[in-house]
Design a protein that fits this description.
alpha/beta; Rossmann fold; 4-stranded parallel β-sheet; 8 strands; about 30% helix
C-alpha cells in the first residue's frame, strides 16, 4: 500500500510572542520563527506508518513551504517515512488553501500513484486544512 501524507510546518508555539504582522501586507511575519510539524499531520504520519507496517508499501510525505521546511522533512524521515518532497517557490508565498491543495495534488500526481492520501484535519496556525 503506497500512502501519501501531506504535512504543514507551523510556528512553534514557544515562539508565538515573537510573531509579528507586516503592517504593509497584513500577513504574519514568520521570519526567524522555528517551525514544527502540525500536530494533526503528525497523527496522519503515524497512521500511515502503522498501515505500512501492517500492509507493506511505502509512505511518502509532501509539504508546500519555504526552503526552511527541509528540517521538518528530515524529522518525518526519521519517524519512518520513506520519501519526502518539498514544494517550494517564492511565487507560492501567501497561497490560499485551494492553491496549496492543488500544488500538493500535482506533486502527488507526478510521484504516485498512491492507494491512500492522509492529511491532518486542521492546522494549528490558521485553523484551515490543506
Amino acid at each position: 500500500m503506497n500512502i501519501a501524507v501531506c504535512v504543514k510546518p507551523v510556528p512553534d508555539s514557544e515562539y508565538y510572542d515573537k510573531i509579528t504582522i507586516d503592517p504593509k501586507t497584513k500577513r504574519v511575519n514568520r521570519e526567524g520563527i522555528p517551525t514544527i510539524i502540525n500536530t494533526m499531520d503528525k497523527h496522519a504520519i503515524e497512521a500511515a506508518l502503522q498501515l505500512k507496517e501492517k500492509h507493506g508499501g511505502k509512505v511518502t510525505v509532501f509539504t508546500m513551504a519555504p526552503d526552511s521546511a527541509v528540517e521538518n522533512l528530515r524529522r518525518v524521515l526519521a519517524m519512518g517515512a520513506d520519501e519526502a518532497f518539498l514544494c517550494s517557490d517564492r511565487a507560492l508565498g501567501g497561497a490560499d488553501t485551494w492553491a496549496t491543495s492543488y500544488t500538493l495534488f500535482k506533486a502527488m500526481e507526478k510521484t504516485g500513484p498512491f492507494d491512500l492520501i492522509l492529511l491532518g484535519n486542521e492546522t494549528e496556525d490558521g485553523g484551515t486544512a490543506q
